[in-house]
Design a protein that fits this description.
Blueprint lengths: L3 E5 L7 E3 L2 E4 L2 E5 L3 H12 L3 E4 L5 H15 L16 H10 L2 H13 L5 H4 L2 H8 L1 H9 L6
Antiparallel strand pairs: 1-4, 1-5, 2-3, 3-4
Length: about 150
């Protein structure tokens, strides 16, 4: 079984080659599968280099794994709470409807109509609001240049 080793040079800034092993910023990797690799390991041990079994990953790869695992452990962002017209004033509901798409406008108007005390100021504008949101109305406005012909 071949084992890969992480070698830490005594001089942490060393980048270059030593006994056939390439170092970058004081770190190199070598495995014991060849005679040369085993000889290099013995040399590094005798010279006081740090020698430890390694998964073969660079510091940058390890840092990326840490970031990825931390991000993966974050709580997911909860879905947005749907707009509830019962929790808002007439003005706020109408402002929301002005910015909403057809699906959202329909949902909010349905919720308002289903309320114990629906507000006529909102429900009386249903057809007008939905007509303004309908794709055919938007296409007609674009085709006629907004002239209403």
């Amino acid at each position: 079984m071949t084992t890969k080793y992480r070698i830490e040079a005594p001089v942490r800034s060393f980048s270059g080659e030593s006994v056939g092993v390439q170092f970058t910023k004081g770190t190199g990797f070598v495995d014991d599968s060849t005679k040369e690799g085993r000889a290099a390991l013995e040399y590094f041990r005798r010279q006081g280099y740090g020698v430890a079994p390694s998964d073969g990953k660079t510091d940058e790869e390890r840092a990326q794994e840490i970031v990825t695992s931390v991000v993966g452990q974050r709580e997911p962002i909860p879905p947005a709470v749907p707009f509830d017209p019962a929790q808002h004033s007439v003005e706020e509901v109408l402002a929301h409807l002005g910015e909403a798409d057809l699906e959202e406008a329909t949902r909010v108007l349905d919720a308002e109509a289903a309320a114990k005390k629906p507000r006529v100021t909102i429900t009386s504008q249903r057809e007008e609001i939905l007509a303004a949101k309908a794709p055919s109305a938007a296409a007609e406005t674009e085709t006629n240049g907004g002239a209403g012909q």
